[in-house]
């Protein structure tokens, strides 16, 4: 067992435990903090996959923006949703069975095909520069990139409009 | 080197946990957290296949970047909706928000 495998197993244990706490803990603020741990673990997976740019983007976008935004919303809406009492509905058993079935099916599917044990090639040194060029080149992904930009702008304006306080209504 | 199926199994577990959160939680913000876990599981899969199958081309990374953008937009709109719903119903429990339930 190599050092990278040990790092992988440790990261997997931490990430999955944090994810389990996210969906089971009754305290919503704790759930948001565990979500940060899980997202950080996913960033470590990106580093293990030598996608350093996406690991940084994961930390900036997910932890820096999304998780903090969630924490704000939890604190803003906390008065009604107190931490006492069960936070899961009566359907949680069916949800657990369905999730376990999905996991079992996915593992069976992964095990039934032959997958490479090591990458076909090394990641080139210029992979981040290549990604930047591909995102703006007409032969690459300029259309999805621009559509994503417009989507973000629309989401921004829509979010401001939806959450706007109307004093006179 | 780490075999590819390790990544796929961890991503499958993360996806299943996220699905459980979406289906079982009562608080709407917690449901959104489950969706985030599922999106992250998908991103691990995308990058794992990119690393092991086509590491010389930026296709997989570009796909993951687009998923990031869509996830950010989804969270912004979803949380704004919860704020608006909370103002109107004074609750973010998914069971209470049944105005459009048939």
- In CATH, the topology of chain B is named Helix Hairpins
CA-to-CA gap between the ends of chain B?
A: 53 Å
Uncertain runs of chain A: none
Here the CATH topology of the largest domain in chain A equals: Four Helix Bundle (Hemerythrin (Met), subunit A)
DSSP strand content of chain A: under 5%
User: What is the typical, i.e. mean, pLDDT of chain A?
Assistant: 88
Highest-level CATH class of chain B = Mainly Alpha
Total E-strand runs of chain B: 0
Number of helices of chain B: 3
| The CATH H-level homologous superfamily of the largest domain in chain A | NADH-ubiquinone/plastoquinone oxidoreductase chain 6, subunit NuoJ
Mean residue pLDDT of chain B: 90
Based on helices, strands and strand pairing, what is the structural class of chain A? mainly alpha
Strand content of the residues of chain B, in percent? Answer: under 5%
Helix content of chain B: over 70%
Query: Any idea how many domains of chain A?
Result: 2
Structure characterization notes:
The complex is a heterodimer of chains A (169) and B (102). By secondary structure, chain A is mostly helical. Chain A has 2 domains: 1-82, Up-down Bundle (Four Helix Bundle (Hemerythrin (Met), subunit A)); 127-169. Chain A contains 6 helices and no strands. Chain A has helices at residues 3-24, 28-48, 52-76, 92-112, 127-136, 142-162. The longest helix of chain A is centred in the middle third of the chain and has 25 residues, at 52-76. By secondary structure, chain B is mainly α. Chain B has a single domain (4-89), classed as Helix Hairpins, CATH 1.10.287. Chain B contains 3 helices and no strands. Chain B has helices spanning 4-24, 28-53, 59-89. In chain B, helix 1 packs antiparallel against helix 2 and helix 2 runs antiparallel to helix 3 (59-89). The mean pLDDT of chain B is 90. The chains are: A mainly alpha (169), B mainly alpha (102). Chains A and B meet through helix 1, helix 2, helix 3, helix 4 and helix 5 of A and helix 1, helix 2 and helix 3 of B.
């Amino acid at each position: 067992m190599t050092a990278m495998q040990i790092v992988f197993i440790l990261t997997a244990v931490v990430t999955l435990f944090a994810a389990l706490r996210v969906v089971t803990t009754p305290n919503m603020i704790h759930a948001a903090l565990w979500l940060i741990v899980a997202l950080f673990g996913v960033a470590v997976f990106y580093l293990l996959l030598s996608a350093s740019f996406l690991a940084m983007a994961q930390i900036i976008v997910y932890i820096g923006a999304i998780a903090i935004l969630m924490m704000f919303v939890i604190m803003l809406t906390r008065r009604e949703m107190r931490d006492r009492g069960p936070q899961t509905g009566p359907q949680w058993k069916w949800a657990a069975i369905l999730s376990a079935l999905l996991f079992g099916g996915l593992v069976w599917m992964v095990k039934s095909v032959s997958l490479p044990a090591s990458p076909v090639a090394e990641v080139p040194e210029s992979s981040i520069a290549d990604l930047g060029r591909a995102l703006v080149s007409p032969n690459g992904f300029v259309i999805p990139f621009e559509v994503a930009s417009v989507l973000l702008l629309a989401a921004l304006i829509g979010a401001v409009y939806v959450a706007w306080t109307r004093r006179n209504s | 080197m780490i075999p590819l199926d390790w990544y796929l199994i961890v991503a499958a577990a993360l996806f299943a946990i996220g699905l459980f959160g979406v289906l079982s939680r009562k608080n709407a913000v917690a449901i959104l957290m489950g969706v985030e876990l599922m999106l992250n599981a998908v991103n691990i899969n995308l990058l794992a296949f990119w690393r092991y199958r086509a590491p010389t081309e930026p296709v997989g990374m570009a796909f993951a970047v687009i998923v990031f953008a869509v996830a950010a937009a989804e969270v912004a709109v979803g949380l704004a909706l919860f704020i608006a719903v909370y103002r109107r119903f004074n609750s973010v429990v998914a069971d209470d928000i049944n105005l459009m339930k048939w």
